[in-house]
Structure formats: C-alpha cells, structure tokens
Inverse folding.
C-alpha cells in the first residue's frame, strides 16, 4: 500500500513538474537530490547491521526543525498548511545543501528523504482542506520513521 501511495505521489510530482513554467533554485535542488542514486520504487530502509545510520551533524538541525514545525502545527491546532509546507521546503532545501554524506548511509537516507519530499509537495499543492490533515499526519509519521533508522 505504501508503495502505491509513493508511486501515485511520484506521478503527481512528475506531472506537476512538467507543467510548471518556472521552478525555484531550491525546488530544483530538492528534486535533483531526491532523484539521485535510486528510483521511485526503492526498497525499504535497512539498518546498518542492526544499528541506526549516522547522519552528519550539519544535517540534523534541519530534520529536527522540520519535525518541530510539524509537531507545533498539530499541537497548536494550526490551519495554515501552505505556510507549513513552505517552511518544510525551506528546511528540506537546507538539509540537502548541507549533505556531505556518501555511500550506503547516503543511499539509505534517500530512501527516507524521497517519499518525505513528495509528501511536502503534496501538502503544498493540496486545495482540498479536508485532505490536509492526512498529509500532516503522514509527515509526522515520516519523522518518526526517520528516527527509527537514523542518528
């Protein structure tokens, strides 16, 4: 089921990207980095011999700030999801710019990051307010998923 959702979001993402006349530099960097090294149907994240993968210290603040933004949105009963999406895009852009990881840990992080970026994009483009909470909950789960596999 998760793969079907990811595939569906990928199709929407690709379609919307092809129909966009202009893209911001940060958006292009996010897409380029997300597509780097693996396809949309990549397998589940693996642990590092039973241990969490180490994430470079420069990258961690951006993940933690994004998680903080989502939790504050939920706990505060906020409704300005467009601002939340913009703030998350900003954190993700900074995360990508600060990435110096390589090898298997980098590849595994991408398995988390790609679907995460797709959820943010879906939230940003959503026009049906009734669907927004589902995307916000998916983002909250995404950060929980990150903590299961990365330190």
């Amino acid at each position: 089921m998760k793969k079907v959702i990811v595939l569906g979001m990928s199709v929407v993402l690709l379609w919307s990207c092809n129909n966009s006349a202009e893209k911001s530099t940060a958006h292009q960097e996010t897409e380029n980095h997300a597509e780097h090294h693996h396809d949309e149907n990549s397998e589940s994240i693996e642990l590092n011999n039973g241990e969490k993968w180490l994430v470079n210290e420069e990258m961690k603040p951006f993940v933690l700030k994004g998680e903080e933004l989502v939790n504050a949105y939920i706990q505060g009963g906020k409704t300005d999801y467009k601002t939340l999406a913009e703030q998350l895009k900003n954190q993700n852009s900074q995360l990508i710019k600060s990435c110096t990881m390589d090898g298997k840990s980098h590849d595994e992080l991408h398995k988390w990051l790609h679907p995460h970026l797709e959820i943010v994009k879906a939230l940003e483009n959503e026009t049906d307010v009734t669907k927004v909470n589902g995307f916000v909950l998916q983002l909250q789960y995404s950060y929980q998923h990150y903590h299961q596999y990365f330190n």
Helices lie at 2-18, 25-35, 60-75, 81-97, 103-125, 129-149.
